[in-house]
Amino acid sequence: MAQSVPPGDIATQPGTKIVFNAPYDDKHTYHIKVTNSSALDPAAGVLDPKENALIAVSCDAFAYGQEDTNNDRVTIEWTNTPDGAAKQFRREWFQGDGMVRRKNLPIEYNP
Q1: How many domains does the chain have?
Q2: What is its main location (predicted)?
Q3: Which of 8, 24, 58, 110 places its Cα 20 to 30 Å from the Cα of 18?
Q4: How far does CA 1 lie from the centroid of its chain?
Q5: Strands (DSSP E) along 15-51, which ranges?
Q6: Is residue 3 one of the residues assigned to a domain?
Q7: 91 phi, psi to nearest 5 deg
Q8: Is residue 72 part of a domain?
Q9: 73-78 sheet: strands from edge to edge
């Protein structure tokens, strides 16, 4: 793995949090745009440099105010891929001794 160079940065839209708005009696879906904003070669994760992907995050119906939602969040993890690796996700890339980076996007629920 290209572990001598730490994984580059990613950018997300939204950048700091996800907000779901009431009512919560039906399923809501929110899209997060994730961009490999680094110029590293090889690319970090399975996204080539400057490539992006849309990720759908869903919120199922729930009783607002009756469940603890204080720790709800979406966590994005990324790492460098091995040199010459196919562009197919492999969980073992995250289980070795290479550096893994994380970005947490807290979820906020508006009444």
Answers
A1: 1
A2: other
A3: 8
A4: 21
A5: 18-21, 28-36
A6: no
A7: -60, -35
A8: yes
A9: 18-21, 101-110, 73-78
